[in-house]
Amino acid sequence: MSSYQKELEKYRDIDEDEILRSLSPEELEQLDCELQEMDPENMLLPAGLRQRDQTKKSPTGPLDRDALLQYLEQQALEVKERDDLVPYTGEKKGKPYIQPKREIPAEEQITLEPELEEALAHATDAEMCDIAAILGMYTLMSNKQYYDAICSGEICNTEGISSVVQPDKYKPVPDEPPNPTNIEEILKRVRSDDKELEEVNLNNIQDISIPMLTELCEAMKTNTHIRSFSLVATKSGDPVANAVADMLRENRSLQSLNIESNFISSTGLMAVLKAVRENATLTELRVDNQRQWPGDAVEMEMATVLEQYITSVSPRNNEFYRTAFATPFRPP
Question: Can you tell me the distance from the alpha carbon of 261 to that of 304, in angstroms, rounded to the nearest whole number?
């Protein structure tokens, strides 16, 4: 047995639990700090996982953010700027680069007949563009010019070959006006079951809080006059989807529901689809373009719900089959 192995033998029968029980709280804290696994080279980790916490100093008082910013700004103004090691004088040094002219070798020079040389010398840009299209030199022109020349068979695009570096001009499309719906007023009318309110459209209102949408769905449970309910692009997630599902189980007047372009996962969509089975009035449901692909389970549930209504003889179910689902967005 080597001397190193003999040295290790004396540690074989050591009772680790007894040693830990004998340590003081300060020693246990130091031991825990030493056993922490840190990765100082991984820049993707937060600072707390790249180095140990060594800030044991207690705070001297409450944090005053404005005072701190004012202090930092004052310190920055008082610090003198360093002078440049080499002052900038604006003098340009060196010679400007001039690309040398390349002489075309004799074997690469092409000589055309005098008639062709004269025709090409006096050809317009549009005519040169059509010639390039006929010869298959489509890299010299834009796609729009190439297909115009091929499809028409005549010179119809007068933009010229130089337009290859110019984008096509499109008419600007103005943004849609903001949704003027007053959410608090709509919530009051839904709760009071206003008979004149048949449609609730909250599309593109992105500052609606989740509790507000949940309260609106709760009020929809007992409403008997609203026929259409739309929450497109409202940043709704699974909590809102679950509230919509609970609403569908109790509401008996809603015919159209649109929750497209939101952040609802497969779990939320599955809850809505299961609630549809318990609803007897819904004829249109739109769930397209969510943040993530809903998955095979959700698509199979959609197929099951559709099959359930196709096989039914109720006219209402036939209408549901024609207008129920938009295909969920599947990312490429």
Answer: 23
Using N-to-C axis directions, what is the helix angle for 210-220 and 238-250, rounded to 10°? 10
Q: Which two tokens stand for residue 135?
A: 């010869």
What is the widest separation between alpha-carbon atoms in the chain? Answer: 106
Percent of residues in the chain assigned helix, strand, coil, to nearest 5:
45, 5, 50
The answer to whether residues 234 and 209 touch, using CB atoms and an 8 Å cutoff, is no
Return the pLDDT at 226: 95
Q: How far is CA 330 from the centre of its chain?
A: 14
Which residue reads 């090691």 in tokens? 85
Q: Show the tokens assigned to 321.
A: 């089959």
pLDDT in tens, 282-321: 888 999 888 888 788 888 888 888 777 666 544 444 444 3
Residue with tokens 């953010």: 65
In tens, the pLDDT along 8-67 reads 777 777 788 888 888 888 888 777 777 666 677 777 777 777 777 777 778 788 888 899
Specify the DSSP class assigned to residue 175: P
Helix (H) or strand (E) holding 256: strand 256-258
Q: How far is residue 138's CA from residue 133's CA, in Å, rounded to a whole number? A: 6
If you count them, how many residues does the chain have? Answer: 332
- Going by their DSSP bridges, the two strands 284-286 and 228-230 should be labelled as unpaired
pTM of the entire structure? Answer: 0.47
Q: In what order do the strands lie in the sheet with 228-230?
A: 199-201, 228-230, 256-258, 284-286
* CA 21, 27, 33, 34 torsion-angle sign: negative
